[in-house]
Amino acid sequence: MSTTSTFDLDAFGRRHIGTTAADQQRMLAELGYDSLDELMSAAVPASIRMGEVLNSAIPAAATEREALAELAALAAQNTVRTSMIGLGYSGTITPAVIQRNVLENPSWYTAYTPYQPEISQGRLEALINFQTMVEDLTGLDIANASMLDEGTAVVEAMLLARRASKSPSNRFVVDADALPQTKALLASRSAVLGIELVEAPLAETSDVAALGEHFGVFVQYPGASGRVWEPSAVLAATKAQGGLAVAAADLLALAVLTSPGELGADVAVGTSQRFGVPMGFGGPHAGYMAVRKGLERQMPGRLVGVSVDASGAPAYRLSLQAREQHIRREKATSNICTAQVLLAVMASMYAVYHGPAGIRHIAVSTAQKAAALAEVLTGYGLTLASEAYFDAIEVHVPGLAKNVVARARELGVHLWEVDEATVHVAVDETTTEAELALAARAFGLPEETVVPVDVRALPAGLPAGLARTSGYLTHPVFNTHQSETQMMRYLKTLADRDYALDRGMIPLGSCTMKLNAATEMQAVTWPAFANLHPFAPEADVVGSLGLIEQLESWLAEVTGYDTVSLQPNAGSQGELAGLLAIRGYHDANGEHERDVCLIPSSAHGTNAASAVLAGMRVVVVATDELGNVDLDDLRAKIAEHAASIAALMITYPSTHGVYEHEVKEITQAVHDAGGQVYVDGANLNALLGYARFGDFGGDVSHLNLHKTFCIPHGGGGPGVGPVAAKAHLAPYLPGHPLAQRPDHAGGFVHAGGPVSAAPYGSPSILPISWAYVRMMGAQGLQDATAAAVLAANYVAARLREHFPVLYTGEHGLVAHECILDLRPLTAETGVTVDDVAKRLIDYGFHAPTMSFPVAGTLMVEPTESEDLAELERFVEAMVSIKTEADAVGRGEWPADDNPLRNAPHTAESVIAGEWAHPYSREQAVYPVRSLVRSKYWAPVRRIDQAFGDRNLVCACPPVEAFA
């Protein structure tokens, strides 16, 4: 931390960075350096160090109050009107008990992906509730733990259909009445994979076979127009020729309409946004996917299942993890490695809180509002495009649509102009009778018009033949917590089963679990940001667009690029967007043969998966014994594929946590071969303020705002993965047909295909990163980098005599993370990396990253936000665990009965029955004295992973299973 920020008591930097100036001097002394500048000069290669930025776009650091005041001024530039736009985004009421106890609760939003299931049982239960909710409503056998949004879920369903179909065809039939953003995504993603899209008005198509052979069909249910129709014949015709049937279904509508599964769909996809998650100008929202039995191993994303722990008790875990992209790499069928966990939790709790009766009531009342408005409008002589609808109608107003929409806006309501003769009107649970009357007035009805709503029964607008008769949400969890007291206690019970940053350090290498400051989070729930429809007129979203433009310019500056797109709503999607930009650039230059993507063997698994999805061929480049790219092998691969090189993907600092000194030589070799350089920005937090990707040869990078720029991981999502690029790639970055503006910061226009359903991805959480940069300033960002590098090197130095540090750079230094090699320990004692990870739970820690990028190791990233006492607590735990392992190696404890092999220890396991182990109860649960008053108790013992895959159960188990 700089001298200035150390003594500025109002500076946010001293709140964000955990170590004080005095702490840092002690740590530096341990490493043999006098100052942070000296340490960073030794760690970061001089060849890539950036000079001073003149005329910086990043203003001097603001205080927390100043930043909130500026955010409030931006929010004030937005105008929140009643949205009746629909098109996949609906107004919704977030129950206050869910907003306060989930969305605004660090126990939920600071947790990590549940890869350590023993300390993730709370959010895993919430996710299995989500899966059960989706399975019930869609009428299908198995659902995953969420997708990124509806549009990308449809793309994933298309790819699943192509994998699973028995048809040799490469054609996919798309409902003409699909959402416009979904059609744009399908067009963009299918083009690079050689899939032919055939669009047809399926509601009016009596013979699907006439459309030609195809591997799948996609219907929107209800349609984008609001139309409700019976698609079972269309679905059956596709299945008869060996194709798969995909339906995008509105979850709320499924409370009153026959489910897709009952209609014959193989796959159902959609969004859970209207289950209590604000529109947020487009996201984040939890998409969903459900499939019939037999397709579960084809599903992308995450799947929560039920297994058993060491005592035979039921326990939740992520199932079928071999599907994960970091294992399958270029053989992966999807590059999605994340989910929208926090939003899926909110949606599931919406169903838990309302129960089946409440959900049906909301659905019926919503349908009645649409019917009431339709009755008033048709009574005035207007005609509708369809007589069957759920929550949306389209009204014929030849030549007057623009006038109607403008009049509605004057009255405070947003309608949607379909074409010059048609206006789209959608209602939701928030719509009032007064707002319905305003909509009616927009169509020219008298000012005194009233639109009375009768919510006692289903309206006539819903076809009787499609009325739902099957049950849903029958599990006790959806029928127990309807009072706020019950709900509050249920959420607290689940949160207490988890380990999140509010309990202690999560030292996950490559994942960067640092502070998500309360001030950064504060604006997320402000109505002026949360209640905007993503397709609202530009004039109504000036504040949000201004915030986006500022953040784009700041991110461009700190990365050394010219332009940034914030559309990708996950790091994996940012990777894909960057590679698609490279592909678009080569194609525009007539170099269609360039399709080889060089990827080091140590790279993040998503790199290879993203390259395949961008239509590229993966060629692996070796790494040397220090973890650096093998320059000889790189040159050989370039020579072998000279005319075909499209790109190199390289992570910097390396995936091994080391600053590679030859990075400029690497990038130059690729450029000389005519390729582009993609620098994976996952480790930007070790570089920020000291070097920039664009300065040492990068052409394009994705960033992880949920890592470097403080958006919370939220238990496994949300995330934002912006893509930053040099000017020559700007035209090929993701655009969007419904974006309010074509240009971005710096005046660059992005005209590539979209990668997310909404124009700006997940903008409701961008105020978090905006606030972080605004409160840190350029100097604070640099201070954070130095503090992170210092923390990692301090931990490495303190543990080096106990565990070898696998990779280091010059001067024996690491970057922001270090890899502890446990393989010698395993060879000497039989204690595995799993044993150490589970034993750390008994010490009150989430384990570091296991076996990535090297099997049998732990990658530790302490981040800049942890204080010295917490770093020392971790060091103490690891040294103590090494002592325990050595005792096993000496034969003092049996290899199959010791504190490590039996970890984690639950309270029940040390209290109930006879204690027959060769170590004491105290050794089991209080291995260090500091735990006596602050113990985190794992709710389950070690989980049997293989049992869960052999006996796949991915819905809420019966209550008696826990008896």
From TrEMBL:
Its cofactor is pyridoxal 5'-phosphate. One of its GO terms (molecular function) is glycine binding. Residues 14-437, 478-744 form the Glycine cleavage system P-protein N-terminal domain. It holds the Pfam family GDC-P. It is an enzyme of class 1 (oxidoreductase). Residues 784-905 form the Glycine dehydrogenase C-terminal domain. GO terms for biological process: glycine decarboxylation via glycine cleavage system. It catalyses: N(6)-[(R)-lipoyl]-L-lysyl-[glycine-cleavage complex H protein] + glycine + H(+) = N(6)-[(R)-S(8)-aminomethyldihydrolipoyl]-L-lysyl-[glycine-cleavage complex H protein] + CO2. Its EC number is 1.4.4.2. The modification N6-(pyridoxal phosphate)lysine is found at K707. The keyword Oxidoreductase applies. Keywords: Oxidoreductase, Pyridoxal phosphate. Gene3D superfamilies: Aspartate Aminotransferase, domain 1, Type I PLP-dependent aspartate aminotransferase-like (Major domain). GO terms for cellular component: cytosol; glycine cleavage complex. Belongs to the GcvP family. The glycine cleavage system catalyzes the degradation of glycine. The P protein binds the alpha-amino group of glycine through its pyridoxal phosphate cofactor; CO(2) is released and the remaining methylamine moiety is then transferred to the lipoamide cofactor of the H protein. The glycine cleavage system is composed of four proteins: P, T, L and H. This is Glycine dehydrogenase (decarboxylating). The lineage of its organism: Bacteria, Bacillati, Actinomycetota, Actinomycetes, Micrococcales. The gene is gcvP.
